[in-house]
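pipeline/complex-builder :: batch 7 item 3
reading input block
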Amino acid sequence: MLELARVSVARGELRVVRDLELTVSAGEMVALLGPNGAGKTSTIMAIAGHVPVVEGTIRFEGRSIDTLSPPERTRLGLGLVPEGRRIFPDLTVRENLVVGGYLLSRGEAQKREREVTALFPRLEERRQQRAGTLSGGEQQMLSIARALMVRPRLLLVDELSLGLMPAVVDLCFEVLVRLCREQGLACLVVEQNTQKILTVADRVTVLSAGRTVWQGTAEEARADEALIDRMLGLEAG
Amino acid sequence: MFYVELLIAGLVQGAMYAMMALGLTLIYGLLRILHIAHAAFFTLGGYVGVLAANSGLPLGAAAALGVLVAATAGPLVYGTVYRPLLDKPPYVALIASIGLLIAMEDGFRLLFGPYGLSFAENPWFVTGPDLGGIFLNWVQIALGLSAVLAIAGLGLFAVGSRAGVAWRATVDDPEMAMSFGVSPERVRLLAFALASALAGLAGFLVGLLNNLIEPGMGNITSYKGLAIVVLGGLGNVPGTLWASLLLGVAESFGTIYLDKILDRDAIAFFILVAVLMWRPQGLARGR
Ligand SMILES: Nc1ncnc2c1ncn2[C@@H]1O[C@H](COP(=O)(O)OP(=O)(O)O)[C@@H](O)[C@H]1O
Ligand SMILES: [Mg+2]
């Protein structure tokens, strides 16, 4: 579904990711791990079309998407749950979902709105509340729900658990895993919480300073936690 | 009765300020540009209106024409002057805006002469309904009504339509809004069209009220508009509306009580300085 072939990503003049090889298949959850500054967010934003790829190719369902703008990628079926959630704070929960479904017809958007809020009953209760006044966990649910509006086939999720209570993190991952299993959604997930992600992901890629330093299945990673810990140990805290 | 009349006159003046300041605050919210040249669209609406009226068009049609021309010129100016400067530091656009105001003002002076134009006939100014002892002319009624309709219309649009929601999302986070298919460019063009239309209408009505359209007529209003958007919190729409009405009423009463000390037009800046000394962030929080 998603294939990155020798991809290098630049921030300004600087190459922050080099020669990344990565695939995500339908129904699969792939974790992208690594210390702060490793280039995880840059990778996610490059796939979503917000940061330029300077070398290599990104393919989605067999076709190269390198020249497509972010909304064109959304239309193709890429959903983004960005770092810091980036919900629209002055809009209500419902209005955030309206923007999420902006590419859909009005009727289709209304139908999707009911479907995605059914995944997160908390959002249903807070439909008319200003998103900026939601708790961190609710904002994260909203960010996921907003990305799901267009029925993406690939979801890019950056730092889902940051600053959230474990129960909320569990709930969000439960929803994502269910969508992977039941609807064949592909997920590429950046996560600092290694413990959690290794129990839900299928495969793992570890970046450090823009280079791929380890790739394997989550099972292998769990068996060799010392390895992963050593790599993430570069990170403070 | 005297105080009621003062209050109403103040509210009408405040409505006019609101029509100007609303555009400034909407544009600031989207682009972080203080659109000083907004005043030139006020004047543009006045000139187009007076020329149309004096060539025989009914006042209503002349007003509509002024609004239409202003609404077309606004997006054009955005596209030619501001768009190329969006990735430059904000002061670049600010300087461009000041330059544009001066250029447009001198343009009016060259085209229509320095002394200004008056309406050959000004029936809206000399007639009006008697509202239980309070006399308002039709221009004042039109100012108040236009402001109320514009504000209500914008409010409905902002919360009740997909395009309005997309606009507010663009103010919050343009990059994210764009990734969901909202075109920030279209939102900006629409903002300039609406803001300039309101300014053009305000200019036409103020022209009727003073029976004079002159090249520099937008200046005072523009300075006051800036004072209002700072008081109301830059980019804060409800704050801007309250500050507009407040200033209109303060000026209205000020002309009676502060007449000896302060010029009417100085009141806005006196309030601005006083409020900023007390609350540097303005009366309401900005963006
Ligand atoms: N907007 C930006 N402009 C310039 N450099 C950036 C920007 N964002 C991140 N970087 C740099 O890119 C590198 C990778 O950052 P990032 O992708 O955010 O890593 P991670 O998400 O793994 O913490 C870092 O060296 C960071 O300083
Ligand atoms: Mg990051």
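note: Residues 88-151 of chain A form one domain.
queue -> next item
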